Amino acid sequence: MTTSPLFYQAGPALPEVSHADGVYLWDEHGNEYLDGCSGAIACNLGHGRTDIRDAMVAQLDRVAFTYRTQFENAPAVALAEALVELTDGALEKVFFVSSGSEAVESALKLARQYFVATGQPQRRRFVSLRPSYHGSTLGALGVTGYQPLEAPFADITSASLKVPGPDFYRHTDADDASHVERVLAETRAAIEAADPGAIIAFVLEPVGGASTGARMLDRRYLEGIRALCDEFGCLLILDEVLTGIGRTGTWFAYQHYGVTPDLLTTAKGLGAGYYPVGAVLAREHIVNAVMESGGFQHGHTYAGNPLACATGLAVLEAIRRERLLANVAERGRRLEAGLKALQARFPWMGDVRGLGLLWGVELVADPRTRTPFPAAENQFARMTALAKEEGLLIYPRRTLDGLAGDHFLVTPPLTIDAQDLEILLARLERALTRLDAEVT
Ligand code: PLP
What we know:
40% of the residues lie in helices and 17% in strands. It has 14 helices and 16 strands. The site of pyridoxal-5'-phosphate has 14 residues, from α4.
């Protein structure tokens, strides 16, 4: 038991961070860590950036905080316009928040209020995937499909209808296309059984994040879900809290698939670890209906404050100036090749999947049968500890229900250069070699 008053997690005491620069952090004992997961897939521009600091200090000197119903502020308007432009104008309206959970919570409430405003109050349920992660507040938790987080609160959340998404690693259908077809047919049947007229929205991550080890969807599936939403008259909410702002090599991951949502959430990478800022983007007609009914009955004190939005603007400018989307694509190809080469050496790296600089590795006891390791072995935690000993931070999880077992994410800052990526792969190789000695 630690003596610290903080209680973020059970488990051993953590090293105290000393300082950070670029893709590296150092602890109080001088140990160096390569940030192979951007903290929690948030610190997307790396650490210690003077351009972001300068933009923040300039805004602090002008005005740090104003309340959104008392003043409009230029950084908020500019950031909202910039976000709309990133969607090519497909989503015209923006509501700022301070975290991913708040973004999801706000999207759920906006969608519900839209149907109340337009005379369909009987729509009171969401559909989402199992497994999935959409945040830790009660509404966001209700659409989350991750058993350990859900269990203590199952009786007090308004749980969504949970359906499985495609599983391109384990399915036994003839091919991926027929698998997607079957999953879509089963999804339709589940919604029909639950009453399509009661559904507010389908919520999903276009590429899975922490709880699914970067589970991939594909264009056919997303087109199918979009078509189901249109047919049943419900909305499509894409949760891009983790995938948004360049992580997959496009501004938003949905742009790989050409399927546009009605509402979109984003957060983590927008403040890039320098200040909390998130947003809900929405189609204009949805917002107009809600505003005409008396306004959105929702909001958080710090939402859209000048400092948050100045930070977000500086982040977007850095991504453009440094052509980071191209860097994500190029480094992403090398990361994929590096991970697949490691998989060839260590077959218990059962599945390597991802896009851009969002990669997941699933660990299995038997690669032939794709059987997960026994849960009690905690291989995801062991792998993370070994990587940390080798000076590499990765993001671990185990999904108990649904498609994945032990897995970890490799999601370095979008700024990582060729040399640091080789160092990342070398440290990962050392950690995998040590785990190999334990599991084979
Ligand atoms: N949605 C997704 C897809 C996420 O990955 C996360 C966080 O990991 C959240 C929502 C919640 O974001 P936050 O931790 O900022 O509340």
